[in-house]
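ok trying this again, last paste got cut off
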Amino acid sequence: MNLGSVVNSTAGDAGPSLSIDGHLLFFTSSRSGGQGLNDIYVSRRTNPKDDFGWRPPVSLGGEVNTAAFEAGPEYLQSAEGGVANFYFNRGPTGTSQDIYLAAVTRDGETLGPAVLVLELSDPAANDAASTLRTDGREVLFYSNRPGGLGGNDLWVSTRQNIHDPWSPPLNPGLPLNTAAADQQPGLSVDGRTLVFASNRSGSIGGSLDIWMSIRTVSAK
């Protein structure tokens, strides 16, 4: 069912990202009143079981949104300490982006300006749509950087704890990636199921279909 005019607008509203506790809904929108080409908004609800209890969305403001293109919100609501917990992409266009990180409270309020995640961003590539394991020690994203199998591939990086820098991103290779476009990953809470978009052989849609991959043991 459509969430209606409280959340949706006549502009493009996309990329929803729900907090684990179900109280916050982050998404990207090109609606009027924003700060740039595309901005990130948050809607809040008191009862996480009320599917239509969302309040009017508000912009995350100038510490996240700029005159550029912001998208791909990913809120890491982790039990482990640390305030830098909100990942997103930013760039001059939707196909020329880098990955950024900001601090956001459990109420969806920003605590400071976003910073570039140098370890995950290739200035000559499009790096976007980061998705994190709930312990904050593994991140997947898609990129057209060198070393891939196709135009867009999924890449993975890990770290020992959330205060450490990310390891150099690695391409998982086949069968996760193909010579087709593999992008927009979403990792499940238990870290075992990955859904993503692809136009690989076997797709039935016109451009991209949703695919799923399952690993038997969660990463440590």
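PB: full thing came through this time. The chain has two domains: 1-116, 126-220.
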